Amino acid sequence: MSDMKYTEDHEYIRLDGDVATVGITKYAQEQLGDVVFVELPDVGKSYSKGDEAAVVESVKAAAEVYAPVSGEVVETNADLEGNPGLVNEDPEGGAWFIKLKLSDKSELDGMMDASAYAKFVEEQA
Amino acid sequence: MADEAQSSETLKRTPLFELHTELGAKMVPFAGYEMPVQYPLGVLKEHLHTRAKAGLFDVSHMGQAILTGPGHETTAAALEKLVPGEILKLAPGRQRYTMLLNSEGGILDDLMVTRPAAAEDDGRLMLVVNAACKDEDYAHLEARLPGAVNLTSLDGRALLALQGPAAAGVLSRWCPQAAELAFMAATPAQFDGVDCHISRSGYTGEDGYEISVANDAVEQVARTLLSDDSVEAIGLGARDSLRLEAGLCLYGHDIDGTTSPIEADLVWSMSKRRREEGGFPGEGRIMRELREGPSRKRVGIQPEGKAPAREGTEIVDAGGAAIGNITSGGFGPSAEGPVAMGYVAIEHAQPGTQVQLMVRGTERPAKVVEMPFVPHRYYRKSK
Questions:
Q1: Which member of A16, A21, A50, B93 has the lowest number of beta carbons within 10 Å of its beta carbon?
Q2: CATH number corresponding to B2-61+156-245
Q3: Rounded to whole angstroms, what are the CA distances from A67 to A101, A105, B73?
Q4: Across the interface, do A36 and B331 touch by the CB < 8 Å criterion?
Q5: B331 in A contact zone (CB under 8 Å)
Q6: CB-based burial of residue A45 (10 Å sphere; 0-12 exposed, 13-18 middle, 19+ buried)?
């Protein structure tokens, strides 16, 4: 878990070489409540950092998921289509959203690590 | 964040605030009150629990008031000048849904009107109005009621709703009068020795009750009801998804000052006499719409995929021309998919009509459908 990075919008990145697995954090799914729908982009699509890349909807509301880094979508999580509730059960594991091939690794510099994010979440409460 | 802290100081609280906190509710600002949007169970399970057993809702933020006049005819006639519903023929102990209208026939608020059962209450009508509208409603009523009819706001009373198929069995444990009460009927009652006023009605499409009780007694009543294994506390989140599946309007979203009762498909709430005689604000427009049909109508919208369409989503026809908007939309836990309602131009209002919803810039197919999305299960006395 040492390679986890986090954004202030509560997305996480798990880095494996130059591929970033992106999802929403445990805190984010708690705030959303029961997830009922996830809309994922097509493989091959490219995003700049901060672009809207996916949508996650709970009974209550819809929330955008932003690309935490620039890159091309190389894989999306098909499990979420049939079982959106997985986002509540295993947000930082099985319920990843997309895998992005990084176009600029330097964008990771300065992103929060696990302890910085934990502190950030505490301040949100 | 500083703003939030400040605004929460000015928010009002219901007498059950501490109980909500104790139960672990997530509190949010709603209509000037700090209200529970969900409990630890979560919106989805709260919704399903209400349809399976019984849900307890704190609706004390809603406005309870009483009109007092010299006799039923005088009070009813005064209110009929402001609403399109049949109030004169409302029998003692019966309740009715109607709406306050502006001079253009638009809806200022929707409300429940109850004629008390007791003979000594002749000339009184009890009103329950929306929390966000209550101050304006009361000012509107006071400015228009004749001298002989007075409005009194019942600020000392809280309101609970107990909804779901187990509601009758649960409430009857402590309040035997509940068992035989008919749908849309009301009666003074005692709950475990506490004076209250109950009606068999609600906002979920299920059988159930609303229980009006003094502020200082409501916590005891709520705790007693929650002590029954089949009762869970339910927040505003599930209240919204339940009423949406039931096809019921949310004021400020599905109906407002621009929508008429005819456009809103609420003609059923007007009696034949009132449709023929008029005598309510905006009767010119409303009578014309009754004769010629409205130009737009509130309809159920069933998205064909899994993506919910939220309030504000544009509805377009097959050619891409705008024909209306979604006014309420989301995921229906009992419908097991997205459900919505909205207004469409009348030529597209027929159930079965194919439409497209502009969800995040993409056209998604949907169909105009009959509501409710989940069948109503109101209590009907067997004959």
A1: A16
A2: 3.30.1360.120
A3: 11, 14, 66
A4: yes
A5: yes
A6: middle
For residue B144 the two structure tokens come to: 């228009």
Q: Left (φ > 0), alpha (ψ -120 to 50) or beta: where does A65 sit?
A: beta
Contact check, Cβ <8 Å, A57/B331: yes
ipTM: 0.84
Minimal C-alpha gap between B305 and chain A (Å): 10
d(CA B142, CA B147) in angstroms, rounded, equals 9
Q: Using CB atoms within 10 A of its CB, is residue B350 exposed (0-12), middle (13-18) or buried (19+)?
A: exposed
The CA-based angle B194-B196-B197, given to 5 degrees, is 160
The candidate with the shortest Cα–Cα distance to A52, out of B362, B325, B339, is: B362
For position A2, what pLDDT does the model report? Answer: 53
**Are the C-beta atoms of B47 and B62 separated by less than 8 Å?**
no
Order across the sheet with B124-129: list the strands: B94-101, B107-115, B124-129, B63-68, B150-153
Q: Which residue's entry shows tokens 């039923």?
A: B72
Residues B260 and B209: their CA atoms lie apart, in Å, by 28
Spell out the domain ranges in chain A. 4-104
Q: How many pairs of residues across A and B have Cβ atoms under 8 Å apart? A: 43
The answer to whether the Cβ–Cβ distance between B237 and A33 falls below 8 Å is yes
Half-sphere exposure of B286 (CA within 13 A, CB side): 30
Q: Which residues on chain A are in Cβ contact (under 8 Å) with B308? A: 36-37, 57, 62
CATH code that applies to domain B295-369: 2.40.30.110
**DSSP category for residue B252:** T
Model pLDDT, residue B58? 98
Could you tell me the two tokens for B106? Answer: 């638009």
> Can you give the pTM of this predicted structure?
0.94
pLDDT tens series, chain B, 383 aa? 333 444 556 899 999 999 999 999 999 999 999 999 999 999 999 999 999 999 999 999 999 999 999 999 999 999 999 999 999 999 999 999 999 999 999 999 999 999 999 999 999 999 999 999 999 999 999 999 999 999 999 999 999 999 999 999 999 999 999 999 999 999 999 999 999 999 999 999 999 999 999 999 999 999 999 999 999 999 999 999 999 999 999 999 999 999 999 999 999 999 999 999 999 999 999 999 999 999 999 999 999 989 999 999 999 998 999 999 999 999 999 999 999 999 999 999 999 999 999 998 889 999 999 999 999 999 987 64
DSSP lists the bridge partners of residue B189 as: B196
Q: Which residues in chain B are classed under CATH 2.40.30.110?
A: 295-369
Q: How far is B16 from chain A (nearest CA, A)?
A: 23
